[in-house]
Sequence to fold (180 residues):
Amino acid sequence: MKEASKLMTEEKFWSIIENSHRGRDLKECLTQLSEDELFGFRYWWEYFCHMSYKQDLWAVAYIVLGGCGDDGFDYFRFWLIAQGRQVFYDALKNADTLCDVFSELEDPEGDDYPEQEKLDYIAMTVLGERTGDEDYFYTADYELPKYEHEIEFEWNEDDEESLRKVCPRTFDKWWENDVF
Fold:
């Protein structure tokens, strides 16, 4: 079994993300990769999804999207990764940095909407198309990590002030704003 963590560097992962134009061209970028590289990409994708499973990022998603459940938070994190390395790492340090990112979205109701479920399936789709087996990703001989998630929330969806404490700039600008 191949360990996917050794099949692509973090640097190459972020280069692919940058070249994908915030995920819009991700399939085209991934189609050029070898099978090993696709699994290496998937390793980093899952790693960054895990890293971003944070209560403050969930608060930002909840505020900006007007609510955010489990699946929505996953889709939000896929969108966040597609924004690129700098935006991603800035948001990990301080979720409130996303306040300005939302203002700069070119197509906030379409390709830039801060929930992008489809991004999670692209590597699997490319592998399925290449092999003719849509389940190939799940049966291939590659080892990917399994992550467990648990969050202790510092905010409550029924307490606006608790949301404001977690990300004040985002709350003040985006709470009950109908942009999305």
The CA atoms of residues 91 and 97 lie 6 Å apart. The first strand starts at residue 2 and ends at 3.
